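Re: the pair you flagged

First of the two:
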Amino acid sequence: MSEKKEPSIWEGFKAFLMRGNVVDLAVAVVIGAAFTNIVNAVVKGLINPLVGAIGTKNLDSYSSCLSDNCQGDQGIRLLWGSVLGATLSFVITAAVVYFLMVLPMAKYLARLEARRKAKEGTHEVMEVTELEVLKEIRDALVAQRGSGHDEP
């Protein structure tokens, strides 16, 4: 009797790491972390100065006071400038991801699918054409056999 050897923990871990989803996820996390730095630099280096041309240079300084007195730490302050900065960061990130990653990949996959369908369509046309030729050959053979039986 042969004993079934269970995979070791190390082999199981290697199999887990080699799954496509785990590797893809790890790559996405690394790229996302690097991409965050780029987006933050764009917001701080481009967006904030553009907003600064209108008002202050830092979006975080825009706020509204809900209470009568908002001096120092007193009162209730809504920091809507921070929310606006985070929203702009999100929109820029989403736009760059969409236009530089998602859209080109979707176009590429659509082209591959169109090529596959065109190849499939050509294959079907060839099959239909071959089928028609075979039917013509059959009809010709039937006609020859029919004419041979009529003669004595």
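Second of the two:
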Amino acid sequence: MAGDLIRVTRIAVFGRHGVLAEETVLGQRFYISLEAQLDLGAAGRSDDVAGTVSYADLTAVAVAIATEHRFNLIEALAEAIAAEILARFTLIDAVTVRVDKPSAPVPAILDSVSIEIMRRRGAGR
């Protein structure tokens, strides 16, 4: 596998994800970051978009899933995004999805909570 990456960092979305009823009603901002592993050599040598994956398309997948669906857990949100990216973009060997939840209902002063998952094509997870 190539060591090449496409990164899309801190896509801001408004969603109603969470276990608590208030999170469903009020909603909140989430930030989604993506890191796609794929071989970018052909695209770099040819200067042809056919050899890569559009970061706009990656962003659109994350935004659609985060805004059109509701999840109790941000782990499930990340899993859905990773699965759709691997299903849709066959050039991608692996994808890392990070979801930050800045307004998590935690009885502490904190910047945010986050989860990060990495899924590989054909890994069975």
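DSSP finds four helices and four strands in the chain.

-B.
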